[in-house]
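Just scan my protein:

——
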Amino acid sequence: MKKRNKTLALILCLTVILTSVLTACGRKEPNPTTSPMAESTNETTSSNQNTNSKAEYAVILKTLSNDFWATMKEGIEEEAKKQGITVDIFAANSEEDTEGQLRILENCIAKGYKAIGVAPLSPTNLINGIVQANQKGIYIMNIDEKIDMETLKSAGGSVIGFATTDNEDVGKKGAEYIIKKLEDEGGEVAIIEGKAGNASGEARKQGATKAFENADKIKLVGSQPADWDRQKALDTAASLIQKHPDLKAIYCCNDTMALGALQAVKNADKEGEIIIVGTDGAAEALQSIKDDELDATVAQDSAKIGAVSFQQMLKAVSEGGEISPENEPETLDVDSYIVDDDYFDKEEND
């Protein structure tokens, strides 16, 4: 009887041990790549996903889906390479992702960069982040889209400089090109604006509006926003063409919208009848001009804007000046120019 009891006890003991071993082998440990902290780093789009980056400089652009910003990124990287310095470049997911862009800035502040360049999606969406950066001794460079300086100063923040093209002059050049093309005939013209409230878009619209209104025989019959979007610009242009059958030209505040407007002209079977002029000098727009479709674009040297912005960041860190809302930011102007058939003909002859 005792022998039988001992045998049963031994079997039970072995069973418990075997169960424990199997349970331990089957247990899954947490995967560090799926932790909340790791997931949060994927909320933003970055051209540099190396979380172990030793860069001391960062730049936050709008969206790399736009050729203007992709070219600016290349210009910054080229300048950084020339200087022998590493730079991290980030971008918002879309033109509407104002909160996401602020999160990128907050993440950059936490990483402790010495200087950060920002191209804000709106004049105010990054102000709180800029103030936080300044409080930690981080220099901020304002790129292309101007921050609301009065609001920033009132909040106690500052930037070391503002690099851009004179956007009112950009709009003026686009309108003057159309006025010259229409010559003595004149006619009805329209403007397709960017996103309402966007500083650079508003400046371009104002420059074009003033030029059209001051020109003889030119009648501005419409000025509507299309939010920098190709499809919205196509729809807006189609509506303008239908409403104004004698429309002679459309100035668009960026090339993406100009290509949308061009499609509307094609759809209306009015190619060669309506002049389309864009803005930025995007690669697709330049090819369209070469293909005798788009008439012209007011090109901006976004690579140079990026390069001079980065130079200003290096200068600020090197000089180590005080960060104060009383400091007056330096304006760095990069000129614009018209690109049309004549531009390419001259380029070939040179």
